[in-house]
UniProtKB/TrEMBL annotation:
Species annotation: Desulfoferula mesophila
Domain 4-vinyl reductase 4VR: 127-189
Name of the molecule in the record: 4-vinyl reductase 4VR domain-containing protein
Amino acid sequence: MRELPCYPGSPPQGFTGERTMDRKYQFSWDLLGDISQGRPNLGPVTRLEVYRLMQFCLRDVLEQNLGKQKADEVFYQAGYLAGSEFFNNVLGPQDDFNEFVRSLQNALKEMGVGILRVEEADLETGSFVVTVSEDLDCSGLPELDYEICIYDEGFIAGLMESFTGRKFKVKEVDCWCTGDRTCRFTAQVID
Ligand SMILES: [Zn+2]
């Protein structure tokens, strides 16, 4: 099984106890189901409020149960798992960086996740800056004094690691919620 990363700044215990447990909810792409069969009238699209309602209520309860730091770690790891699965099941094998970015941009736009741009890419040092506009998770939210797209940080880390085979630390540095009109992420190789 893919090893989940630690959220930056959290103690390294992660989910180590869980990996040896009997699993009930291990993710597989099949769990997303046959939507054309299951929703012949409503189809694959839902209202964004419903997605945010689920995500933000889940985060509220995670924080109440586990604390702020652990809740952030869970979101980062869930995003990482999702990014890895998205790479394998939506994008497929990629060997050219520009082609990888193009496929990713198209998929994220087509699925209504956001508009991705790569601002800086240094393949030799493994240093990247990407922006996501009209982001699924945060565009239009009230202004806060912190960046909130921790799931997206993990998602980008999962994608970058799947493409390069190297470990990444991803940090959101600008967010709709901190007054910017796009989310900006730094991604840096850490191995
Ligand atoms: Zn954001």
